[in-house]
Write a structure and sequence with these properties.
The complex is a heterodimer of chains A (116) and B (118). Helices cover 0% and strands 53% of the residues of chain A. Chain A has no helices and eleven strands. The relative contact order of chain A is 0.33. In chain B, a hairpin with a 4-residue loop joins strand 8 and strand 9. Chain B has 118 residues and is mainly β. Classes of the chains: A mainly beta (116), B mainly beta (118). At the A-B interface, strand 4, strand 5, strand 9 and strand 10 of A face strand 5, strand 6 and strand 11 of B.
C-alpha cells in the first residue's frame, strides 16, 4: 500500500532554531505539494513541485522558508530561523500530473511543529 | 481567484441518520477538479473523491454519495446511515487546471466538523 511518508511526525523546538521536515512521495508520483494547517488559516499551500522543479512557492515566507527536491524520492521544507507563529501541522502530498488519476493528491501523516 | 465555502462549521447527528455536507465553490476556469477529504481525529487527510468539471454525473460509493451541480456551483456530500466512525472534519477542495490541463494546488474550504453520536 503506497503512502506518502513524512519525518519527523512531531517536532518541538525553540524560537530561532532551524527546522527541517522531510517527505517521501509515493513512488512514481511527479508532483509534490507542501501545505500548512493552522486553526486560524486552515489548510494553505506553501509550495509545490512538478518533476522536481518548483512551480509555485508564493504561499511561503521567502525570508525564512525554503523548499527543495534534491531527488525524486525526497522533498524538504526548511524553516530558518523558526518563530512561534510557524507552529502548525505541515503536510506533504504527492500526485500525478497526467493520466487517469491526474490531480488526485495523497497526503502524508503530517509533521506537527511546535516552536516555543 | 478560486474559493471554496463550507458554510457548516459543525454538524452533530445521531447514528443512522443521513447527513449532507455542503460545499460551494468559485472559479473562473472552465476546467477544474473538485475533491472531498476526510480528516479523522488522528489528523491524517484521507482522499475520498475527485470530480471533473466536465462530468456532472453523481456518484455513490457505499454509504457515501456526491451531488455535483455546476448550475449552483455546488458539490455536496451525503453520508447515509451515519456511523460513529464517520466523525471527522470533512474538507471540500478545488483545483483549477493550468494551461496545460494538468493540476495545480488545492484550495480548501474551512472544513465541517461532523460528530456522529451513538
Amino acid at each position: 500500500d503506497a503512502r506518502v511518508t513524512q519525518t519527523p511526525r512531531h517536532k518541538v523546538t525553540e524560537m530561532g532554531q532551524e527546522v527541517t521536515m522531510r517527505c517521501q512521495p509515493i513512488l512514481g508520483h511527479n508532483t509534490v505539494f507542501w501545505y500548512r494547517q493552522t486553526m486560524m488559516q486552515g489548510l494553505e499551500l506553501l509550495a509545490y513541485f512538478r518533476n522536481r522543479a518548483p512551480l509555485d512557492d508564493s504561499g511561503m515566507p521567502k525570508d525564512r522558508f525554503s523548499a527543495e527536491m534534491p531527488d525524486a524520492t525526497l522533498a524538504t521544507l526548511k524553516i530558518q530561523p523558526s518563530e512561534p507563529r510557524d507552529s502548525a501541522v505541515y503536510f506533504c502530498a504527492s500526485g500525478l500530473a497526467s493520466g487517469r488519476r491526474m490531480n488526485e493528491q495523497f497526503f502524508g501523516p503530517g509533521t506537527r511543529l511546535t516552536v516555543l | 481567484a478560486q474559493k471554496v465555502t463550507q458554510a457548516q462549521t459543525e454538524i452533530s447527528v445521531v447514528e443512522k441518520e443521513d447527513v449532507t455536507l455542503d460545499c460551494v465553490y468559485e472559479t473562473r476556469d472552465t476546467t477544474y477538479y473538485l475533491f472531498w477529504y476526510k480528516q479523522p481525529p488522528s489528523g491524517e487527510l484521507v482522499f475520498l473523491i475527485r470530480r471533473n468539471s466536465f462530468d456532472e454525473q453523481n456518484e455513490i460509493s457505499g454509504r457515501y454519495s456526491w451531488n455535483f451541480q455546476k448550475s449552483t456551483s455546488s458539490f455536496n456530500f451525503t453520508i447515509t446511515a451515519s456511523q460513529v466512525v464517520d466523525s471527522a472534519v470533512y474538507f471540500c477542495a478545488l483545483s483549477e487546471a493550468g494551461s496545460s490541463g494538468s493540476a495545480r494546488q488545492l484550495t480548501f474550504g474551512s472544513g465541517t466538523q461532523l460528530t456522529v453520536l451513538p
